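To: structure desk
From: M.T.
Subject: fold request, one chain
Message: Could you run this one when you get a chance? Sequence is below, nothing fancy, just the single chain.
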Amino acid sequence: MKPGTTNQPNNESSGSSSQSLEHDALCSFQEIMRTEPLKAPKAFEHLVKTSIAKNMDKSYCEKAAEDFFEMFRTFSLYKKRKMTEEISKMDLTAGICLCNKMGIGSSLPWDACFNKLGGDEGELSFERPNLRHLQAMGDNKYGKLGVGSNEETINELRNVLLDEEIDKAYIGPNHSIFVTSEKGIYAAGKASNFLEGYENSEEFFTSPIKLNYVSSDYHTMRVLMTENSTVFQNFNPAAALVIGQRPDDCRVISEGPNWSIVTSLDDELPTVIQLKNSREKDTNVNEFHRIHSLVRNFQIKIWSSANYEHVYHARLPIIIVNGYRTNVSRRDTDISVCNDGTTYACIRGVFYKGHLKLAPADRGRKRSRFEDSEGHSSPAKPDILVAILEEKILPMKIERFDVDSEGKSFIFMNPPIRDDKEGKPYHPIGIRYEFKRQNNSDHIPKNGLMLLEGFQLLNDALYPDCIKMAYDPEGLPSHMSPIVLSLLTLRNLLEVDEKTKITKSFIECRKTFDGKDEVDEDDVEMFEQKFYEELKKSVARDRDIPIAVSGVGWDSIFEGERPSIMQRKSTELLTSVMEEIRVLLQYLVDLPLVYRNNRADCIFYRLVHKIIAGTRIQLDRFEEKQHGHSYNYFGMEDTIFGPCPVDTPMRENLELGDFDEPRLQKIHVEVILKRESNFDDIWFWNEVHRWNTNRLFIQYIDPSLLEHTQGNILNLNKACQQDSTPTRFRKIVDKLLGCKNDKGIKYEIIDINPKVQSIISELPPNEKYFITSNEEKVVEVPKVLFEIFSGYDSARRRHPTGDVNSFRLDFSEKTINSLICCIFDATAFVGMDIELKVEVIKMARFCIFSQLLTKLLKALVVTAEEKDVHVVRQLFWEHRDEMIQIIGELRPDMILFWKASPIPEESYWKDFESVCTKISSVHYRKTPERLRRATEDEDVSDDQMCTSWLQNLMYDEEKDRDVRHDFEKVLQSWNPKRDGLFREPEARSTQSVRMRTMRIILRSISMRIIRRNDEIFSKMTEVIKRNPNILRSCILYEFTEGQPIFETFKKLCKKFGEDFIDYPEFEYWFMRFSQGNFDLDHDRKIFSLNLNTRSFADLPVEIFNEIGGHLDLSDRFILRKVSKDIQVLVDSWDPEVIALKYSQGYDNRHMYRYSWKFSQKSTVLKHFDDSCDNLLSLLKNPKLRLEKLTIRCSYDKKKEIIKLLEHSNQKIRVKRLEIDGKLLQKPTIFHMFDDKALKEVTVRTREQYIRSLDEFDIFKKLEMLTVFTDVCPSDPTLLYNFPRLTIKFYESCKVEVSRFIKNLLQSTQLQICYLLSVRNSFNFELIKSYFAEPETMVPDFTNIRHYPIPATNEFYEIDFEEEKISIERKQ
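Reply: Done. Structure tokens follow.
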């Protein structure tokens, strides 16, 4: 009931009483808020609970919340922090009710409040829903935000009309540029700034349009924005593209209507920010516009009054967030600074606004010295750069944002989608493979019979087990695929002419000997080169292995039926391939005599044998390293914008006996998505999605898929296997599973009606229903869709009246067609106006489309805006239970931020509580420590700011006296070396000198009194310790103070000394007193026989883990020796070791010997103790993730290293491995490393060991192989098989390096190579003189050479840089 209203005369008394109760409760809250503001949150919680219990009018709570925040806005920064801590102690329902009155964009530490409302402090974080679409707000001059509006200012978040993933956005004064992850560039705003031919035009675009003149290959180019132009730096290697008005001081290369290509322009100058320094003088801080959290240093320029430019390097600014000093380097952070010093930040998904300030350094600090840009030392104490930030409330979780230089326009983006194991892209075949020819061979065949013997050895190795393993149980090519590809390649290479039965590739190779009676080595080399050209043409790709479809259900995999079918199909495939190869080899062996001159046959036999021998080696390695698989099976996923689930309603219809299976046109769809695994025992795991659908849905998505059905089974992997790219496969999977649409909704209006109508028009009349609308129009719809989904249709068919295929519905033609479109594709619902959405939902409810109705309700709620609140409220009334679930899970912002509530008034408090409960269960999640938001001060640096400056910034002397003591503690924690706080700035006056003198005298007197009192107190303490009753009386006295047990214990320890009493004894008496037993003469020993004393090992695991977090590795090793139970717990902790090193040097005892060192999150290496058990426990820890492992040992120590690593019983996960050449000799250690984790290897070796590198496949898969060697390798072919190389030379080898480079260019595998000299002994000019061929020169680039790669459109680019030579393969 509203205040001041009455309904009926007989209710007047009760209404007046209720109104009086509500008024009194509000007045009571306002009085507490005025007198004791820190107790206001608790009082508001009581008001909400009273409102719920008495079903009071919610307007009183709303009025109380408004009054509270009017008061909150007047608080100082620290008072807001204290109030936030009090709000966080409220229950969630009251907290939501209170914070709802703070609108979007308001300043309130909302996140800090809600992080603790959900439960355990620190462990849970409130996770707002992710941003579903690119959004913008703020200054919208010329419609530059791209939201489809020309309003000057957009005050709320709106969707940018661009449906692609954004990598970067640039916001200028009059336009914006959007760079997409698909390499497209879009723009919105003033057209003359980004479109050719629009010179001096006043036309503008409010929706982003694609810029086709910028090649997508340059999507990473730098973009500079001005008021009248866009500059694309690096448009080509030596020029920039200017659209619009070009700068005056540039050289024009070419130009056209509103565009110019000019010489490269200087980079954009840093933004100059006006700040006040500690002496209140204007100071210019030259600051980079964007500060990344990973960048620890950036340049600061201070301009003094003497106009002397002082330059130094400072760390990232000290960040104060909502009054808390925060270490942003531990969190995902994005910071932008605008021209006036206004600072915006996104920290762990929360958006903040504030300012940069220069804080004077604390006077108690020792004066530091630093150097300016010219190296001059100065004793001056620099000011400290500080960012003061307060949260700006946004309804969604923000991961990235961009802001213009004036801080008036904002664009908020989703986090970029990365191609990793957790997501796409995926391929219809699974993991992609490359076939690489092998150079290894056991023997060189002298004739064809020996070649057949080599093939027989391969055949014997393949049977009987491996021949069954070409397929996974799902039917995809297995991890044995490289071997199968080798066999298919060999089959293709040995193909014969149908008429002559002569091997075609042999004929092509033999042509190199035509007209020659004798051949020399050069001729043989040409023959081999031609052979490898033919081999390249014959190489089989992964899509050449046919996918097998079993025709049985996925559940049968657990019973062995499906795997056995796949084994049979694998055997059939490989047996047929091997038989084909055998026949083709026989043709090759039986070559006519005319082709055998000049040893052509023997040379060809030898080259073919390399392929056979290489395949057998691969097979041997495969058998040694077989890994298992992991399987995950899914049905149709429950998505919002995916297709309507068909499986359940079809099964229900079949169970009722209304239809048989052929009538429902069922198609069983299966798709296998292969993911790489993180586990040691498996290489990958498979997501197997399968569900039943209807033929019409497949026809709508892609009609060509129907051609690939086998019976009623459609395997999407097989259907898309022969596609040249996986794009179609990914689109179909996204469409069918609907996951991508849920993450990024397409907000453009999608007119799918023509496509649907085309499908309907192809149906025969007996497959249609003819529905008469309320406009007397006849609408044709697919009969089978109503039969499957509609409960109304089922009832209508059971009780027919007239023609069953024709009936009337009281809905418009547009509504009926829209509903049919939503069944086919729920994304069609997004583009409808709100009135049509409501009508479609009404029709779905009337026709009992139960499966579709839930999906449409979710779609409406997800896409609703606050202006649609009346529609949401009506739906809430009609579908209460569903809407509570949907709003609580998908749109908590409706309750948290909307000014008008979507909950109907009739049962407001009951439903409000239900939604809050759902929000609590869904959006509070356990969060790792590194991802938690700051809710307490963090020690981030040694920088100590002046306390008086902090006092003026954060504290109000008049209004904040009630929190003075707490604030002093905070300052003490920020500046721990300062004992005097709240000091006024010292004045150079006689009075201040006198005061300082008096303080010194008083301090001296006080110290004498304290020393005397200490002697008396010490004697008293001894008396208390000797008398148990007095000791117990002290505990009882402190117990009456009501402090927690451990706080009381610490307080007594501080008074009487650390050893005055054991904690178990203290705890015993404290707990007796808490149970009401105050007998001080109680004899504990009498009862001790029946008591079980607790030990250290009895601590809860959570507390034990907390203790472990504060121990370094050496302490943990000591702790694990206490007992076996503790050892198990200690070994389960993350060791947090990032580096290990084994080398010769001085240990802790200053003895020169081999020893192990470790590093934990720092570059400092510490020594292990002598215990091998400690090191072994570390290597056995499954959580060990090393950044770097260095092993430099002698031959004698090598066996110890191997034995130690073998005893770890697990593969070592390390990113960078550094070893010496001794470890390349057998036995080796490389099988003990996880090759998926290993990215870089550095080998210090001599030339004689380099040939050993080629024996290890693990080196060929690295991101970089670095070789330290004394001289230049004499045989570059030893390095041909390594695509990414860095070679560092110790000695001078100028001519040898030139020859080495020229030979290295013959490699077919090389992608990039760097050559460096450790002692800077390269004479680059001399080396460059050996590469002076005119055809290799690059105009205007004297240090670059281009060498074409034969038979390709690629070339090697050699760049003679200042300190290194780089060789890179390019197109």
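Reply (cont.): Residues 700 and 758 are 10 Å apart (CA to CA). Let me know if you need anything else for the meeting.
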